[in-house]
Amino acid sequence: MIVLEGTAKTPGVAIARGATVRAPDGIGSVAPSILEHGIQAIKRRLSPVDYPEAVVVCDSLALGAGV
């Protein structure tokens, strides 16, 4: 387990797969397996509450909001 600290959008503790997004690469820096799980959830027309969970870690709030 990796512990990350920084400024969160909302306070609290989250435990999930991590998706690190770096500004130069954008969403392309997210692991393909995480993206594939999300795409499959959309294709199966799941409700957003049933989407796979991931903690998004990024260089800036604007980049994180875009992902």
Q: Can you lay out the helices and strands and say which pair or pack?
A:
Blueprint: E1 17-21, H1 32-43, E2 54-58, H2 61-66
Parallel strand pairs: 1-2
Low-confidence stretches: none
State which percent range the strand residues make up: 5-15%
Number of strands: 2
Spatial sequence of strands, sheet with the most strands: 1-2
Shape: globular
Question: How many whole angstroms does the radius of gyration measure?
Answer: 12 Å
Mean model confidence by pLDDT: 74
Number of distinct helices: 2
User: Helices and strands: which structural class?
Assistant: alpha+beta
Determine the fraction of residues in helical runs and give it as a percent range: 25-40%
Largest sheet: 2 strands, parallel
Distance between the termini: 23 Å
List keywords for this structure.
67 residues, alpha+beta, two-stranded parallel sheet, 2 helices, 27% helix, globular
Provide an overview of this structure.
The chain has 67 residues and is of the alpha+beta class. It has a domain at 26-66. It contains 2 helices and 2 strands, in the order E-H-E-H. The protein has helices spanning 32-43, 61-66; strands at 17-21, 54-58. Helix 1 (32-43) links the parallel strand 1 and strand 2. The longest helix has 12 residues, at 32-43.
